[in-house]
Amino acid sequence: xxxxxxxxxxxxxxxxxxxxxxxxxxxxxxxxxxxxxxxxxxxxxxxxxxxxxxxxxxxxxxxxxxxxxxxxxxxxxxxxxxxxxxxxxxxxxxxxxxxxxxxxxxxxxxxxxxxxxxxxxxxxxxxxxxxxxxxxxxxxxxxxxxxxxxxxxxxxxxxxxxxxxxxxxxxxxxxxxxxxxxxxxxxxxxxxxxxxxxxxxxxxxxxxxxxxxxxxxxxxxxxxxxxxxxxxxxxxxxxxxxxxxxxxxxxxxxxxxxxxxxxxxxxxxxxxxxxxxxxxxxxxxxxxxxxxxxxxxxxxxxxxxxxxxxxxxxxxxxxxxxxxxxxxxxxx
Length: 332
Hints:
- The protein is mostly beta strands.
- It has a single domain, classed as Beta-galactosidase, Chain A, domain 5.
- The protein has two helices and 23 strands.
- The chain has helices at residues 24-36, 319-330, and strands spanning 38-40, 43-45, 56-62, 65-71, 79-84, 87-88, 99-105, 118-119, 135-142, 145-154, 161-162, 165-166, 173-186, 189-201, 209-219, 225-230, 235-238, 244-246, 250-253, 260-264, 273-283, 288-298, 306-317.
- The strands form five sheets. Strands 8, 9, 10, 13, 14, 16, 17, 19, 20 and 23 form a ten-stranded antiparallel beta sheet that branches. A five-stranded antiparallel beta sheet has the order 7-15-22-21-18, with no helix packed on it.
- A hairpin with a 2-residue loop joins strand 5 and strand 6.
- The longest helix has 13 residues, at 24-36.
């Protein structure tokens, strides 16, 4: 098992924090300010009207139903909802859940991941509010295809702490950009998502390590059966609560097996990179389940700036359908 750098008990972004209720009204103020002065790759966002709305829907027939994916302005274009066969697959309570991506840098025992953590959907201060500190730069949604480009907010604002550790960032809005390209349907599998992300590390950044949470899914509590796909037997096997990361793809399903979601990343060799590894967490108290797909980059001298791209396949359907998809994908 790969030991996760995520903190236990669950990090703040993994569950609601009642202490943050006081931030709800302040979040709109910070959101307005960042839209006035948003500079990324030479593009200024002078006001909210200059940004895409963030509200979109894509859909595609998928077996006996259709997959419907929704994004919202509240989350700067991050995926707020995915439904299939009358079931909601995503928990979107605050700005740290959703189906989204995030990254962190130079993590250590004295500097945890949240203390320098660009996050697609927004910041901890955004909490359950109606706006995001992240800045949506581009959104295109047509039929079964979604593309977004987002300047990510830091999860913590300057001066805030995570598990007693002070934020290392000095701004609320980062210069780190996430570009995603999502299609419903992959080859002969209409119930699969072809999910591609690119993290752009700014040229003035200096880091020796990076952790790319290429994709994470926060799911409703009824997805409480954890499975891993064994490539040797080509079967799903029960998986403990962990928590943490493993090498095999992870599947979260309802107890009856009628609804499931699995994550797999095809081989994609990159220098100084480990992964993918797949994590799972069960937060009973907060009624949310989580899976993720993580890549790590390390260079003792300095990791390069620029683009880091990753591709994932997300299987949606019954547990048996998800098993069949993973069997084919991993046998290639």
